[in-house]
Amino acid sequence: MTRQLIHSPVTDSIVARILVADDDPRLLSSLSSLLAQQGYLVTSALGGREACRQLNTRTFDLAMLDLRMPELDGFEVMAHAAKVQPKCGIIVVSGESSFSSVSRALRKGAQDYIKKPFDPDEMLTTLEAVLGKQSLVRAHTDVQQRLEKSEALHRYIVNNSPDIVFMLDDQGRFCFINRKIESLLGYNSEELNGKHFRHLLDEQDIARGTHPLRDPSVTPENPRTFEVKLKTRGSQKANRYFEITAFPIDHGTLPLGADFNARTSGPKARFYGTARDVTERKEAEAFINFQAYHDLLTRLPNRALFTDRLSLAITQASRSKQKLAVMFLDLDRFKVINDTLGHAMGDVLLQVVTQRLESCLRKGDTLSRFGGDEFTLLLPAINSSNDARRIAKKLIDALKAPFQLGEHEVFVGVSIGISLYPEAGTSMDQLIQNADIAMYHVKARGKDGYRFYSESMNIDTVNRLSLERDLRQALENNELRVYYQPQVCAKSGRIVGLEALVRWQHPDRGLLYPKDFLPLAEETKLIVALSEQVLAQACRHVKGWILDGNRDLRLAVNMSPIQVEHPRFVENLIRQLKNEEFPASHLEIEITENVIMNDLKQISQKLQQLADHGVRIAIDDFGTGYSSLNYLHQLPIHTLKVDQSFIRGIGNGEDDACIVNAIVAMAHGLRLDIIAEGVETDAQLAYLRGLGCQQIQGFLYGPAQPPEAISRMLDGQRVRAVV
C-alpha cells in the first residue's frame, strides 16, 4: 500500500490518519468526533474484526485500540497491524489497568496506554506525543540519509530526544549536550560545555562512570553500556539513575565526526553517547527487593533476611570465638486485642510495638517480624549472657506502659525465649528452635518474662512430633481420662468438692500425667479442645454423683490462660454447661493470679459475668503471684487455694507457716473460703484446723483417683452419714 499525504485545508500541514477501534458504539462515536474536531482524519471500527479489515484496505499513521473486544481483542489487532502496517503507531485506550495488561500491551508494540475513562485534554496530549515520536523516528531516518546537508535538522532531533545526547572529547569533557539535560537534571547545556562529565556523576559512582571510557576494547561495534546515578542541580531534587551507552567516534568512517569537528572550535569529539533516565525502573526494582526481604506493615526485616543475617553472624562468631544471642519474642494478649478491636487496630498496635522494641536495641542488632505477633531478635557479638539479659529486661519494660489505640487503652506484654551460641546450638535452625522452646516455657509460667534455653527444656524433635500426632489422635479417640482429688471439709472430713485432673491413657506409653503432655498442648493450641473434653467428662461424672445424693458436691476445674483470654470464654463455658445440663452453681473454676493481672480489666468483666451465672471463682496457687489485696477486693472471688509450697513449711519452724497464717486471716477478713493444697500430715491438718481453714486437699486423703474409686468413697461417706 502507498501512503497518501493528506494536507489540512487550513494549515496546509500533513494530517494524520487515525483508526479508532472499540466495541462500545457510544464511546467510539465520542472519541472519533473529538479527534475529527482536532483536524485528524478518523476511521471508526466497531470491534476487532472490523479494525483488521480497515487495516487491510487503508493506510494509517496511528491506531487507537481497546483491549477487550469480542471476536478479536486488542492484542490480536496489534499483532495483525504489525504484519500489514508495521509503521502504524498504536495507542491502547482501555479500562484494563492491571500491570500485566499494561506491560503486555507495551511489549506488543503499543507506544502509550490511556485508561478509561479518559480526560480529553490528556488523551489529545498523549496522542500528539505519540505522533510526535513517530515523526521523530521518520525524521531521524531522513537525517541519516541527508546528514551533511541537514545539520540543523539533526540538532533539532537530538535536542528533542527523550534521552540526553552528548559528545565527549578524549579527556572526557563535554563537546556537546542536548537540551534534555535541562528538563531531567536542571543544568543549562551551554554551562556544561568544556566541563568533565565527572561533574555530573554521583560521588559513589565516579569510578563506575569513568572506568568504561578508559577501556581500550571499546569500539563502535563494541560500545559500553553502564548504569550510574547523576546529580541534579541544587539539593531539592534527588539524584537520578541513568543508563549510559557510549560509542567511540571513528573519524575516518563517520562523516558526522569530521563535519562536527570542522564546524566547532576546541577539542575534537571522541565519544558519542545517550543517557536514558531509568529512575522509575530502579525504584521499582528497589521496592520489589525491599518487599522480598522486609515486612511491609512494620518495615522490619522478614524471616528470609533475618536468617541470612543470622547465618552470617554465626560464621563471624565461629571465626572470632564470640557469642551471639537469638531471642524469640511473642506478644502477650495480642490476640485478645486483635479479636476485640479488629485487625486494623491490631496492625497499628504492631507498628507501635515495633517502635518501642527498636528503641531498646544496639546498632547492629536485627529485629525481625517472624509472623503474626511473633518477632525474632539477633544480638551479634555479645560478651556474656548478661548482655542478652539486659536487653531482654529493657524490651519487657518498654512494653509495660499502656498503648493508646483510639479511645482504648490496652496493655501488651512480651514473652521472650533466649538461645546463646554456641551453648544452645551452633546452627541457625537450632538457635531459632531453642529460643522458641524457651519462649513457650515463659508462656507456661505466666507470660511477660524471659528465659534462657537449657538442656532440660529440650524435647527431641521426632518424639515431640510423634507426641503431638498422638495427642491429636487421643482427642479423636477419647483417650483422655479425668481423675479427681477430693476437697475435704476440715471439720467433718466430708468430701465437699472434687478437683478434675486430666490423665492420658496412651495406647503404648501407658498412663501419662499432665506434666508429660500439657506443655505441648499449650504450645500447639490443643489445650482448648483438651479442656473442653475434660470438662464434658467431669460434668457427666459429678452430675451423676450429685443425683445420687451428694447434693452439695462441687466440681473444681483448672482453666488454661488461652481459654480465659479468648473473647468468647464466658459464652463458650456457659454453653457447654447448658449442653451437659450441669448446674453452674456447682462449678468452681480455678485460675492463677498471673492470668488475672495480665489484663485485669478484661478478666474482671468475664469473671463478673460468670459469677452472675452462679459459677464460683477460685484463685489457684495463691501467694506465688501478685497477691494483691486490691484485685481480691474488686473481683468476684469466692475461694483462695493456698499453694502447697507454703503448707510444707508448717511444723518445721519455717517462715512459710507465717505466710499461711497471714493468708488465712486475710481470707477471713474478706469472707473468702480457704482450701489448703498439698496437706500430707496430721500435724499440718491440725494446724490448719486451728487457723480456721475450711477445706483440705492433698495426699493425706489420697492422690487423684479414677471415677470408680471416687464413687466408692462417696458411697462409703453416704453410708457413714446414715449410720
UniProtKB/TrEMBL annotation:
Its EC number is 3.1.4.52. GO terms for molecular function: cyclic-guanylate-specific phosphodiesterase activity. This is cyclic-guanylate-specific phosphodiesterase. Residues 17-131 form the Response regulatory domain. It catalyses: 3',3'-c-di-GMP + H2O = 5'-phosphoguanylyl(3'->5')guanosine + H(+). Residues 464-718 form the EAL domain. Keywords: c-di-GMP, Phosphoprotein. InterPro entries: Biofilm_reg_signaling, CheY-like_superfamily, EAL_dom, EAL_sf, GGDEF_dom, Nucleotide_cyclase, PAS, PAS-like_dom_sf. Residues 322-455 form the GGDEF domain. NCBIfam families: GGDEF, sensory_box. Residues 150-205 form the PAS domain. GO terms for biological process: cellular response to nitric oxide; phosphorelay signal transduction system; regulation of DNA-templated transcription. The modification 4-aspartylphosphate is found at D66. Its cofactor is Mg(2+). The keyword Nucleotide-binding does not apply. It comes from the Bacteria. PANTHER family: BIOFILM ARCHITECTURE MAINTENANCE PROTEIN MBAA, DIGUANYLATE CYCLASE DGCP.
